[in-house]
Design a protein that fits this description.
alpha+beta; Alpha-Beta Plaits; Rossmann fold; Immunoglobulin-like; 7-stranded parallel beta sheet; about 30% strand
Length: about 675
């Protein structure tokens, strides 16, 4: 009987609509229309066939559609054009024709070339017959996962974690130290990184307590409420409450020394209210897409979204685990598209915990290029509520982990108090904040380059799985893996005649004020020891040098801070000098590391004899022999220029008699 009934329904739909119209309806919309009464209006997407004519002017003048900062961000992707078809505005004539037919416009998406809005059954039929209408679909109305926005605020007088060691770090993190220290953030702050110059968009359920002291120094450059259509992202008379957004924003960028400090406390912030927390008015996915496009037009670098969706409120059909394939949910499609435009999209993996299904992910965390963040506790163990993968097409998810259990945050109901909160909602902003630090260290990094760096330095880089991804993000390790500034081509340090001689070379220079030489010993922070003026601008190779005679330990570390006339600062990789006599066998760390196309290898031997220098892959297979000969005692240096190796880690092993030394190298094509 069920099969007969289904056939009758399908047959009836064919009788009601012409075949050309039926083909434009999604299956979900078709089903909805069959049960819709004549006066009831529903929220639909209408997709257009094109964007009209006279589009060349936009490609010739891309600043007409996006900001200069957005164009600068896109430039690092090195595509043929800074904008593409998705960036062009929707044809306004199409929109006006829809509205004149009774369509009530809600949101516009130039990326999707579509609009969302309310229409009744007859209007939808009418609109589907327009030649410029490509297809129609229902706007998915999401049901929040039960634990996603629910948490209990409790004010604690004492931290449940070990206190911050005194005198070790330059900032006093209060009870937020544990969540940051798990990711090595305090060590990165001590290097001078704080998120400056990076723009972050936080998309959440509103922000109801921006008067909290943790936000006193936050640089908020734009705000918009996409639920209610106004610039007020708080609760004042609007639908939805913003306590959740207050918490997440404080975790990523709050600054109240002695109480709470976020990883990116000096970044620029864009705030978007996209989630309606009212129980009878679930959020629509078009809010999120509209907010993402808006943030892109301003020039956002990183987005942080502590929301995720899987199930709809009845009578709408839910997504299932089978739809977590990276190509079904509109917000997932938009998230991946944003990455192609140079935006790092960071999203909570979900709070679905363990299910009997093959995954418990929520959209848009299933996106191919979206950074899905799971949650661990302070000891690094996965939180029971953290969603797991893989995606339906077999990709590992989540991507990375951060602390999401008992995270210290600003309290939403008081302007001076704090609280512990839990959920992947809070591991997400912690991770997004670290990504801002990486972008500050090298603004030229693309989202995929950042992902690759994090994959190589997180705690499970060698054994990722669908519960932890590539592991807990380690900010300092990631910073140290980032390549040297563009203008710097080499940086070496050698111990000669009771002094360390530093030498570095630049191939070209633009706007270079000079280099600050910094030094540290084991267990210490970097300190300035000299300033070497730059040439300003030069297209030729420029060689610099500095001699350090003030040596107090037999192991010392150096780095360079390049300063431009406009105040921009970039750092070189660290180089280590082992101030030992020729009574020791030493295999120095190669430089640069990681390297492409070549690297310098140095070693010393206190005795004459047969010496070998070999490269092995991480499985122990010998890849190449660099040295195998008799050599006198002394220091040696060779250049290693691989031509047929794949990207990855390799072991360099030096042997002389019974002595063996080894280091790890990273080759990146």
């Amino acid at each position: 009987m069920k099969k007969i009934f289904l056939m009758l329904v399908l047959f009836a739909s064919i009788l009601i609509y012409p075949q050309s119209v039926v083909e434009k309806f999604s299956p979900e919309l078709q089903t909805k229309l069959n049960s819709l009464n004549s006066s009831e209006k529903i929220l639909v997407w209408i997709y257009f066939t094109d964007k009209g004519n006279s589009l060349e002017n936009y490609f010739s003048n891309p600043e007409l559609v996006v900001s200069e900062k957005s164009l600068q961000r896109r430039a690092k992707l090195q595509t043929e054009s800074l904008i593409d078809f998705t960036d062009l505005p929707i044809n306004q004539n199409y929109i006006e024709e829809l509205q004149s037919s009774g369509f009530q416009l809600k949101q516009k998406s130039k990326w999707l070339n579509a609009v969302s809005g309310y229409a009744d059954k007859s209007t939808i039929e009418n609109l589907a017959q327009r030649n410029f209408v490509k297809s129609l679909d229902v706007v998915k109305i999401f049901k929040k996962t039960e634990s996603e926005l629910e948490f209990t605020e409790t004010v604690f007088e004492k931290s449940q974690y070990p206190p911050q060691p005194e005198g070790v770090n330059s900032l006093n993190y209060g009870q937020s130290f544990a969540q940051l220290n798990l990711m090595q953030v305090p060590a990165v702050h001590d290097l001078g990184y704080d998120g400056s110059g990076v723009t972050i968009c936080v998309m959440d359920a509103g922000f109801n307590n921006l008067a909290h002291v943790a936000f006193d120094s936050m640089n908020i450059i734009a705000m918009w409420d996409f639920v209610n259509g106004d610039p007020n992202v708080g609760d004042e008379g609007d639908m939805g409450t913003g306590s959740h957004g207050t918490n997440t924003l404080s975790v990523i960028g709050g600054y109240a020394p002695g109480n709470l400090i976020g990883p990116a406390y000096r970044s620029n912030y864009i705030l978007a209210k996209t989630e309606n927390t009212d129980s009878e008015t679930p959020v629509e996915e078009d809010n999120w897409v509209a907010a993402l496009e808006w943030a892109d037009s301003i020039g956002v670098d990183v987005t942080s979204t502590s929301l995720g969706y899987l199930e709809y409120d009845p009578p709408f059909t839910s997504y299932t685990w089978q739809d977590m394939n990276g190509n079904t949910a509109i917000i997932t499609i938009a998230g991946d598209l944003a990455v192609k435009k140079g935006i790092v999209v960071v999203n909570s993996a979900g709070n679905e915990g363990w299910r009997s299904t093959p995954n418990s992910l929520v959209a848009p965390a299933d996106g191919d290029s979206v950074f899905a963040i799971g949650a661990v506790d302070a000891s690094g163990l996965r939180a029971s509520f953290s969603s797991f993968g893989p995606t339906v097409d077999g990709r590992i998810k989540p991507d990375f982990m951060a602390m999401g259990s008992n995270v210290w945050a600003a309290r939403s109901s008081n302007q001076t108090q704090y609280t512990y909160v839990s959920g992947t909602s809070f591991s997400c902003p912690l991770s997004a904040g670290v990504i801002a630090l990486l972008l500050q260290s090298n603004p030229n990094l693309t989202p995929i380059q950042i992902r690759n760096i994090l994959r190589q330095t997180s705690t499970r880089s060698n054994n990722p799985d669908n519960f932890y991804g590539w592991g807990i993000i380690k900010a300092l390790d990631a910073i140290n893996l980032i390549t040297v500034p563009v203008e710097l081509t080499s940086f070496t340090a050698n111990y000669i005649n009771d002094a360390v001689e530093l030498n570095w070379i630049t191939a070209t220079e633009t706007n270079n004020f000079g280099f600050e030489v910094q030094k540290r010993y084991d267990g210490e922070q970097y300190k300035k020891i000299a300033f070497i003026p730059g040439t300003g601008t030069s297209t030729n190779r420029v060689t610099y040098s500095y001699k350090d005679n003030d040596l107090k330990s037999n192991r010392v570390y150096y780095r360079l801070k390049q300063i431009d006339f406009n105040g921009d600062e970039t750092y070189s990789n660290e180089v280590e000098v082992d101030i030992s006599t020729l009574q020791d066998f030493v295999l120095y760390q190669n430089y640069p590391n990681p390297f492409n196309p070549s690297t310098i290898i140095r070693w010393q031997s206190p005795v004459s004899g047969q010496q070998t220098l070999k490269v092995y892959d991480m499985l122990g297979n010998e890849v190449v022999t660099l040295v195998n000969e008799y050599r006198d005692a002394g220091k040696y240096e060779i250049e290693f220029n691989p031509t047929n190796l794949s990207s990855g880690f390799y072991l360099l092993v030096f042997k002389s008699g019974t002595i063996q030394k080894q280091i790890k190298m990273l080759y990146m094509k």
